[in-house]
Amino acid sequence: MSSVLSLLKVLGMTDQRMLVFPSPAEFYDPMRMVVSFSGKDGDRNILCAISREALDDHFGGDNKDLMKVFIVNRNRIEHEARRKYLADELEIDGSVLVKTEDIET
User: Fold this and answer.
1) How confident is the model at residue 41 (pLDDT cuts 50, 70, 90)?
2) What confidence category does residue 93 fall into, taking pLDDT thresholds of 50, 70 and 90?
3) Average pLDDT over residues 63-86
4) Spatial contact of 96 and 44, defined as CB atoms under 8 Å apart
5) What angle do CA 55, 50, 87 make, to 5 degrees?
């Protein structure tokens, strides 16, 4: 099996992407009504965001400090952003936007 994987890797037929979130620097963008945060894939910065609607619908954000809601739920939100990134479910500008319909309950 390892020989097959090595061969596929040499041929460029394996997905080597990995989205990590090394430094928390989230902020609320009132113009877009999202909490924005950054991920990295190697040396590439990937802008990520979660909509206010998703925070309200799935994380109890209604009438609460959205930044606190984001921080408490950071792992699950980052998981959803990573899933969308690896599935190539990107916005036109290459960013990842987690919307309410993206999150399974």
Assistant:
1) very high
2) very high
3) 93
4) no
5) 125
Beta-strand ranges (E) seen in the chain are 27-29, 34-41, 44-51, 96-98
16-100, what's its fold?
A: Double Stranded RNA Binding Domain (3.30.160)
Q: Delimit the domains of the chain by residue range.
A: 16-100
Q: Is 63 left (phi over 0), alpha (psi -120 to 50) or beta?
A: left
User: What is the reported pLDDT for 30?
Assistant: 95
Query: Which residue type does 52 have?
Result: R
CB neighbour burial string for 31-48, b if at least 16 within 10 angstroms, e if fewer:
eeebbbbbbeeeeeebeb
Q: Report whether 32 contacts 91 (CB < 8 A).
A: no
Q: Give me the mean pLDDT over the 63-87 stretch.
A: 93
State how far the Cα of 54 lies from the Cα of 87, in Å rounded to an integer.
19
If you search the block for the tokens 């500008």, which residue do you land on? 93
DSSP 101: G
